[in-house]
Write a structure and sequence with these properties.
The protein starts with 10 loop residues before the first strand and ends in a 6-residue tail after the last helix. β6, α5 and β7 (187-188) form a beta-alpha-beta unit. The protein is of the alpha/beta class. The chain has a seven-stranded parallel beta sheet, sandwiched between helices. Helices cover 41% and strands 16% of the residues. It is globular. The longest helix has 17 residues, at 71-87. It has helices at 25-36, 71-87, 102-117, 148-160, 172-182, 203-206, 228-234, 253-262, 277-284, 299-302, 307-314, 325-334, 345-356, 359-375, 378-388, and strands at 11-16, 39-47, 60-65, 93-97, 128-134, 167-169, 187-188, 214-219, 242-247, 269-273, 289-292, 319-321, 337-339. The protein contains 15 helices and 13 strands. α1 crosses α15, α2 (71-87) packs parallel to α3 and α7 crosses α13.
């Protein structure tokens, strides 16, 4: 789009998310795709007490310091602060990530549209709003079994969702569920990483892991029902000389530390804490098998396609996953790993031993992973986002 002087008008995009930005690869990819289409991007999140320093980005970032860090007061404060932050900043596009940023961005979008329609200057076109519902928010484990919180989130979703014009979700299953529930089109834009080259793995040495020891690896949120407690307990039954490396942090991090001590597995488990996503690929490449063994405790996990699976693929790491539809389709379709039989620690140990004890099969998985990595990358997926926003014509 151009001015009367035939010069491009700079388009402003503001992307909002409730996390502290350090480990969120999905919003980073969204921001970079918007930049490719002439948007000046501002990514807004929050700063927590123990947040890491952000590495330099190619776009602007802003982290709000809040009084509350969790619970209803956090979400209320975040959305109120975000709403006023947005309405006082010029923008052409607002992007909400997950239901917990939708109220502020949607109502700020309504304000910006009112201003536009009463404005005498309309060179840039009407402001747009994109909602990335990502997962099925009301099905996250933290809300399963609770009454009041899911009711409040559903009331907000019921009020706003039917009016949304541009919506994306992390996979076809979640997109279908939302589309059927609210009667609006939802586009599946998978959580795929940029294509990454393989580099010499030096992280085993950095973490003081013996060169001949196998690495069982998990990266992501250290939260409830991710199968991490069972993975720790499975080590007592494991026949392979291996270490379990868990990269990330979350709600059960300290409980997991206590479990490791009780199980006397301090020499078999390494907890790294949070790692910025820019450095994550270096960690992932040291793995011999990558875990994504969530439990079937709700609709969100059942239809999950975690981004760690795609990171494992880019790092040429064979996968051991829960037999859920989206994960199973990828793993069995490309023949790049196996599904667990159950979460019982002894059974889980058997599944891990079966993979690590079969070097020929592991080599075949790694060969198949090369094709999967070529196809399952953001370079092949980002056109869906561009087409949805009609960015090619900007």
């Amino acid at each position: 789009m151009r001015t009367r002087a035939n010069q491009p008008i700079p388009l402003q995009a503001i992307v909002a998310v409730t996390n502290d930005l350090t480990t969120d690869q999905r919003v980073d990819r969204t921001c970079k795709t918007l930049q490719q289409h002439s948007y000046s991007v501002l990514l807004v999140g929050r700063r927590r007490t123990k947040s890491l320093t952000l590495a330099p980005r190619s776009y602007q970032t802003h982290r709000m310091q809040l009084l509350f860090e969790k619970g209803p007061l956090f979400y209320a404060e975040f959305n109120l602060r975000l709403f006023f932050f947005l309405i006082f900043r010029s923008h052409h596009l607002l992007v909400s990530n997950d239901l917990d940023t939708l109220p502020a961005t949607y109502f700020a979008h309504l304000v910006s549209r009112m201003i536009f329609f009463f404005s005498f200057s309309r060179d840039r076109g009407a402001p747009l709003h994109l909602h990335d519902c990502h997962e099925y928010f009301r099905g996250v484990p933290e809300l399963v079994g609770r009454k009041f919180a899911p009711m409040m989130w559903k009331a907000l979703e019921d009020m706003i969702f039917p009016h949304l014009k541009r919506v994306i979700a992390v996979n076809t299953s979640i997109a279908r569920i939302y589309s059927e529930e609210y009667g609006v089109p939802v586009t599946a834009v998978r959580n795929l990483p940029f294509r990454k080259p393989l580099t010499p793995a030096n992280m085993k040495k950095a973490l003081q892991i013996g060169e001949n020891r196998k690495v069982i690896y998990y990266q992501g949120a250290v939260n409830v029902d991710r199968g991490l407690e069972e993975a720790v307990c499975a080590l007592q039954y494991l026949k392979t000389d291996a270490v379990l490396v868990i990269v990330g942090t979350g709600d059960i991090f300290h409980e997991l530390q206590s479990l490791i001590v009780r199980e006397k597995r301090e020499n078999q488990v390494i907890l790294t804490g949070p790692v910025p996503f820019e450095k994550l690929h270096e960690y992932t490449q040291m793995a011999d098998v990558g875990l994504s063994i969530e439990k079937d405790i709700g609709i969100n996990y059942h239809y999950a396609l975690p981004n760690k699976i795609m990171d494992y693929i880019q790092a040429n790491v064979p996968l051991l996953v829960s037999p859920f539809p989206e994960m199973k389709t990828i793993v069995e379709g490309y023949r790049i790993g196996a599904c667990i039989a159950g979460h019982d620690p002894e059974s889980l140990a058997g599944s891990i031993d079966a993979m690590l004890g079969n070097p020929l099969q592991l080599e075949q998985y790694k060969e198949n992973l090369k094709l999967a990595a070529e196809e399952l990358c953001w370079e092949n997926e980002q056109h869906k986002l561009s087409e949805l926003l009609n960015l090619e014509s900007v």
